[in-house]
Amino acid sequence: MDTIWLTGGEWLAVLRIGLGVWWLESWRHKDKKAWFEGSGIAWAADVAAKHRWEVVRSGFAVVVKPRPKVMAYVVLYAELALGLGLILGFLTPVALVGGLLLNLVYLVLMIHDWAEQGQNSMMALISVVGLFGMAWQDWSVDNLLGLFR
Questions:
Q1: 22 CB-near residues (< 8 Å, 6+ apart)
Q2: 41-53, pLDDT tens digit by residue?
Q3: 48 is in which domain, residue-wise?
Q4: What does pTM read for this prediction?
């Protein structure tokens, strides 16, 4: 593969690190105190209750609504773990698949919001490119430890 300036693997590492920064920013900008008090999940519950797809409404009611505090921790710490994992390149394939799944959940929940669709679509696309391009081969803890070769 011919590239300018960096190798193909290094460009994939740049993409992986950029996606990690994006996840970390998603975590950083949230008001943690309000999230842990339930505002984030309450907002999502309101969105889910008005959703056009019954599977989203009922799925949210069964999985998330009964345990808002736990789900707030899951969302916040998943975004933090994804960001750090991708930036450091640690357990990168796991982080890429986890991020892809989380983006798909966000995308389905926010199907009416064009801005959210764009952000989550781009993040999901980067995850797929990183996964199939094996973005852990350069500048990563995975590579240093000899993981996923």
A1: 83, 123
A2: 998 999 999 999 9
A3: 31-142
A4: 0.93
